[in-house]
Amino acid sequence: MRLLGFVSLVGSIVGATSTALSANSSESDPLQGLYALVQRRIPSHAHSFTFSFTNSSDSELDTFTLTDAVNKTRAIHVECNTVSACSRGLYTYLTEYGGVDIWWTGSRLDQLPAPLPAVKTAVTRSAIVPYRYMFNTVTFDYTSAFWTFDDWELMLDWLSLRGVNLPLAWVGFEHTLVEVFREYNITDADISGFLSGPAFQAWNRFGNIQGSWGGDLPTQWIDDQFVLGKQIVQRMVDLGMTPVLPAFTGFVPPAMHNLYPNASIVNGSAWNDFAPQFTNDSFLEPFDPLFAQVQQSFISKQQAAFGNVSHIYTLDQYNENDPYSGDPSYLTNISAATFSSLRAADPDATWLMQGWLFFSSADFWTPERVEAYLAGVPGDDDGSGMLILDLYSEAQPQWQRLSSYFGKRWIWCELHDYGGNMGFEGNFANVTEAPLAALASPNVSMVGVGLTPEGMEGNEIIYDVLLDQAWSSSPINKTEYAQAWATRRYPADELPECAIEAWQTLAATVYSNTDPGSQATVKSILELEPALSGLVNVTGHHPTHVFYDTNTTIVPALQQLVQAGHSTPSLLAIPEYRYDLVDLTRQLLVNRFIDLYADLLAVYNTTSASSASVSAAGQPMLELVADLDKVLMTNENFQLSRWTDAARSWANGNASYAAYLEYNARNQITLWGPKGEINDYASKQWGGLVGDYYGKRWAMFIQYLEGSKSNGTVYNATAIAGALLDIGEQWSQSTSAVGARDTMVVGDTWLVVQEMAGKWA
Ligand SMILES: *[C@@H]1O[C@H](CO)[C@@H](O)[C@H](O)[C@H]1NC(C)=O
Ligand SMILES: *[C@@H]1O[C@H](CO)[C@@H](O)[C@H](O)[C@H]1NC(C)=O
Ligand SMILES: *[C@@H]1O[C@H](CO)[C@@H](O)[C@H](O)[C@H]1NC(C)=O
Ligand SMILES: *[C@@H]1O[C@H](CO)[C@@H](O)[C@H](O)[C@H]1NC(C)=O
Ligand SMILES: *[C@@H]1O[C@H](CO)[C@@H](O)[C@H](O)[C@H]1NC(C)=O
Ligand SMILES: *[C@@H]1O[C@H](CO)[C@@H](O)[C@H](O)[C@H]1NC(C)=O
Ligand SMILES: *[C@@H]1O[C@H](CO)[C@@H](O)[C@H](O)[C@H]1NC(C)=O
Ligand SMILES: *[C@@H]1O[C@H](CO)[C@@H](O)[C@H](O)[C@H]1NC(C)=O
Ligand SMILES: *[C@@H]1O[C@H](CO)[C@@H](O)[C@H](O)[C@H]1NC(C)=O
Ligand SMILES: *[C@@H]1O[C@H](CO)[C@@H](O)[C@H](O)[C@H]1NC(C)=O
Ligand SMILES: *[C@@H]1O[C@H](CO)[C@@H](O)[C@H](O)[C@H]1NC(C)=O
Ligand SMILES: *[C@@H]1O[C@H](CO)[C@@H](O)[C@H](O)[C@H]1NC(C)=O
């Protein structure tokens, strides 16, 4: 085992970054993309910012210096050693001096005051790590599956300003892959049979699933995503980021067996409860000579389409998909051949992999096997061959167990959200102190921090703080952070103290979660299939156990925020304020639902219970579901129709294509598979979904319990499951004509939130 020193690790990174940056520098100023960002987001101050590169770079890490410009007509100057550092310098000014920010819910940077506040004393800061990474392969489905370039533009500006320099860039992958498969004489029918639907591509890319339920992936989708992907990658480069691009992983259509009978093609393992038709993907083993040829074809085609903009490739062969053999020499052969195929196609290639498997399949991935797998990538070339995402570092870090990945470089990542579920949760200490402690540990090969959420739904503060920590060598103070964060989230002449107290309350409680059993976003039982047992107090993956007391956390925070709106009505015009009101009310209601459910069970389980008493106990639950739907419907960010409309919009008016896209969108957030294979994994608290779907399920369940009391039928879980699946299939297949599309924003957030807070607090 050989551990690499920190300095030698950095050398290769600077090389990699500057290669990407110089892609176009001969014909254009690399800072042009940043000027364009200023123009786009702060047009009234478009000429107030200048950027320049320093001549001397004594720091190998990204560094910026913020000063007042000498020339008064151009007020603020940022000097830096990379575009990303300049962008972070700009962000530092905008947030810390200008009091404005850009959020997932929109950019408010245009509210920068005039005249601009002065910097006075120059501020110099450096990143603590070379890489700031963003995205999980599955974020591309749980969150951005149907995004347009406008959505991407907001996210990329959000990333760039926060100093992210290494974002994942999957969009458009299938176009290149199809061209490669065609070159290898696989028929279009066989290719179609392999690719998965628009809302499920990540798991096809991972080799977990194949094929598309509800109809084959249309060529139109592949072509449109290709156009979008090129725009995204270009923008990433313009903003000084190095896109992490896909490569050929080895997963191929089954027809490859027949065309190349001598090639070593093995069947991957079955994934979850999917029928063989949709899983057991064929895997071309990398040591077969065909693999390197396909890799060469893929990378050259991708480079022709996207430009020579990056040498970092995402490549996952065993995500929730165990290797054909656990023999260490087999594993070394696989990775050695995979890596040499990359280097043959691109001599500067770096292989980036998600480390999720080392946690999720920890029984298979013993330290011995991990060491063998990583050993296939040579370690004698300064370690630049590999980058591993320690995917869930805030709760289940693997780097200690695996001896800092045996010297391979790795990135400390915050996962936090499974399936784009919604629920307040986080721990400041775990994303501020913990990454610093990791970085300071002896012989560690950590080279970055990153965000790898499966989906992005709320809890924005807990993501923000990690990207801020990447620029601070001492741990960020939770109390001070919450205050500053709330102050710029609700820009007001005089923000009432109670608004800040609301966030202090949350920071000290739901964002200081130390319960090891309830990590990552806590799921609400309201979104799960109704049942008599198994819903409440689940710990581990997808916990439902609420680790805090709602009465002393969510309730006072909501009341404080409402009080702020009463004393400063201008807050009501701030979209983030309205978002937070809905978010807190949402949490209050779903937590109260647990108590109502317990009441129902208590009644049902007494032998003397009548149909009427069960009905009376079920009534408040249905009322709460309706109330939750009502509050969610007041805000565009909490609506099913936003998701389904985004899906449909890619059809440009073609009705059958729109219905196909909507089925994908609806199926992902409900049944997740044709028959509920990973039912409710990606559930959401969205207006339209809550009322029309979860409401229907609970109503059916309660009615069933009532019936069983009136006619003495014994509770039959199988019968219930069948009836619930019917509801799911019907709901997935319905289209917005009968669903939520015609119900855009309904009702006023301010009024409905107060009504619900009064009723349920
Ligand atoms: C390089 O810049 C030109 C315009 O300055 C642009 O048209 C082209 O797309 C850029 N290419 C890459 C690979 O960035
Ligand atoms: C950059 O180099 C030029 C010429 O060598 C020098 O005049 C200037 O002062 C330098 N700027 C900085 C910030 O070091
Ligand atoms: C200040 O900047 C403006 C705009 O770039 C330029 O026209 C002007 O000449 C500058 N003045 C001085 C004193 O440098
Ligand atoms: C595909 O088929 C054509 C025609 O039979 C053949 O010339 C070519 O070599 C095949 N391509 C590959 C990669 O096998
Ligand atoms: C497969 O291997 C056998 C035995 O080595 C050989 O005879 C045959 O020609 C090969 N077939 C193909 C398609 O390469
Ligand atoms: C998270 O923080 C808690 C204390 O706040 C600590 O007990 C726990 O070990 C931390 N977990 C990780 C993975 O850092
Ligand atoms: C964080 O800041 C608050 C307010 O400034 C202070 O009272 C507290 O002691 C600080 N906490 C730590 C751990 O430094
Ligand atoms: C009610 O009865 C069911 C089935 O017998 C059991 O699983 C469940 O734990 C009971 N719940 C309560 C709250 O007693
Ligand atoms: C869930 O846990 C809480 C305490 O954490 C407890 O009060 C409650 O009874 C539990 N509910 C069930 C159904 O086990
Ligand atoms: C929380 O408040 C509700 C409503 O006032 C009350 O019914 C419940 O008992 C309280 N729960 C706890 C744990 O104090
Ligand atoms: C008896 O109740 C069960 C459970 O609600 C229901 O499925 C069944 O249809 C009822 N049977 C009759 C004859 O009403
Ligand atoms: C439960 O329901 C299933 C499906 O409807 C049925 O096949 C089974 O016979 C039922 N079990 C009992 C004990 O009634």
Automatic annotation (TrEMBL):
Q: Which residues form the Alpha-N-acetylglucosaminidase N-terminal domain?
A: 33-118
Molecular-function GO terms, alphabetical: hydrolase activity
A Pfam family cross-referenced in the UniProt record is NAGLU_N
This protein's source sits in the domain of life called Eukaryota
Q: Residues in domain Alpha-N-acetylglucosaminidase tim-barrel?
A: 132-472
Domain Alpha-N-acetylglucosaminidase C-terminal per the UniProt entry, residue ranges: 481-757
Signal peptide boundaries: 1-19
What keywords are annotated for this sequence in UniProt?
Hydrolase, Signal
The name under which this protein is listed is Glycoside hydrolase family 89 protein
